[in-house]
Design goal:
Elements lengths: L1 E4 L7 H12 L2 H4 L6 E7 L3 E7 L12 H16 L3 H20 L5 E4 L17 H11 L4 E7 L1 H13 L3 E11 L3 H5 L2 H12 L3 E3 L8 H16 L8 H9 L4 E6 L5 E10 L2 E9 L9 H16 L2 E3 L5 H5 L4 E10 L5 H25 L2
Parallel strand pairs: 4-5, 10-11
Antiparallel strand pairs: 1-2, 2-3, 3-4, 5-12, 6-11, 6-12, 7-8, 8-9, 9-10
Helix pairs in contact: 3-4, 9-10
Length: 371
């Protein structure tokens, strides 16, 4: 019923290709700051979930490192978003003070289920069926590992969250993400959408379609790095050129963008679509250009167009909160569901304390500062 499968045994082509990618290449050849054991889990031969297994790896990206998410990345977010000196200093001291305690209690000894190693992981049409069997299977094989399901929210996963709580999982808030629905009446109420479309129409850049963008793979990586790594955080996934080449050739993402007359890519998006949900793990633009050129707007407009083309819900992740709200984005808290009932008492207490802090201190901060 619950078992590991080789990529060649997976009937779902989208999941199979992900598995083949990590079967053929060590994770660090694909994502510089990710060292992990990547596997594929079968649930009754109907649902197939990517799984990552870790032990320490404290310099990993937050996509498979709770330590990075709770300490390293959070410190960056505080310094970037919280201007109140007293609050900033107090929270920095709290995070740095808990660092060694989290390491001692093996916070990174984890199994992340349904983990594509992306900032946002869409879920298949699975609502927690066979969850007790999954827990038993994983904890019997890895009795010292915490189980984690990331990227959960009440909009799409209310039934799944209920099942997690029913079977002993605890939930902790991680960030606020923004949802868009392809509703024409709602869409038309936002003047910014019309302004964005006019800016795109006046642009001198040339559209590069998914079929044409293969020759720009190295430029896609450069634009992504300019925005997500250099501007935002070194703890975001640092995808390699090999990853982008494989992602394009295997159609893991839908890439499209805009170039100038010299053939230089200026803005780009890479969309990941699963089970009626669109996510945008890859967004990039030339940050050296003037904001007046609206390169970010042009990239996001491509995502909105895809939403209307497919009729799918768009999860536009976190960040740029004001920009997204002004275009109809609805903010919702994102959670991780965590199972640690089988662990030694000290490690259970660590998780209980950490989740208390995340929910009692973290949620008000997430909502106030729109993190």
């Amino acid at each position: 019923m619950i078992k590991w499968l080789l990529p060649s045994q997976i009937p779902n082509p989208q999941i199979r290709v992900w598995g083949e990618l990590f079967e053929q290449h060590p994770s660090q050849q694909l994502i510089e700051n990710v060292r992990t054991d990547f596997r594929l889990l079968s649930i009754n031969d109907r649902w197939f979930l990517p799984v990552t297994i870790n032990d320490t790896e404290f310099d990993n990206s937050y996509v498979c490192s709770p330590y990075t998410a709770c300490v390293s990345y959070s410190i960056e977010e505080l310094d970037r978003n919280i201007r109140n000196p007293f609050l900033n200093k107090s929270l920095n001291l709290l995070l740095k003070g808990t660092s060694n305690w989290l390491i001692r209690n093996e916070i990174n000894k984890t199994i992340h289920v349904n983990n594509f190693l992306l900032s946002t992981n869409p879920y298949p049409d699975w609502h927690g069926i066979y969850l007790p069997q999954i827990v038993r299977f994983l904890t019997e094989q890895f009795p010292q590992h915490t189980l984690i399901f990331r990227s959960l929210n009440q909009v799409q996963h209310s039934l799944l969250l209920h099942e997690f709580e029913r079977y002993g999982f605890r939930t902790g808030a991680s960030r606020q993400v923004y949802y868009f629905h392809p509703n024409a009446q709602t869409w038309s109420k936002h003047n910014n959408i019309g302004n964005d479309r006019r800016l795109v129409q006046k642009s001198e850049l040339t559209y590069v379609s998914p079929a044409e963008i293969g020759e720009y793979v190295s430029q896609i990586r450069e634009l992504y790095n300019q925005l997500y790594i250099q501007k935002y955080s070194q703890h975001n996934p640092r995808f390699t050129e090999l990853f982008f080449e494989k992602a394009f050739s295997n159609q893991l993402f839908r890439f499209e963008g805009y170039r100038n007359d010299e053939g230089l890519l200026k803005s780009v998006v890479g969309l990941f679509e699963l089970n009626g949900t669109i996510t945008s793990p890859i967004v990039g633009y030339d940050t050296s250009e003037s904001p007046k050129k609206g390169l970010y707007i042009q990239a996001i407009d491509l995502i909105f167009r895809r939403m209307h083309q497919t009729g799918h819900v768009l999860n536009l992740s976190s960040g740029a909160a004001s920009f997204k709200r002004l275009r109809g984005g609805q903010g919702h808290l994102e959670y991780s569901a965590i199972y640690f009932n089988h662990l030694p008492h000290a490690r259970q207490q660590m998780w209980k304390t950490l989740l208390y802090l995340l929910n009692k201190i973290g949620i008000p901060l997430l909502e106030k500062y729109e993190l």
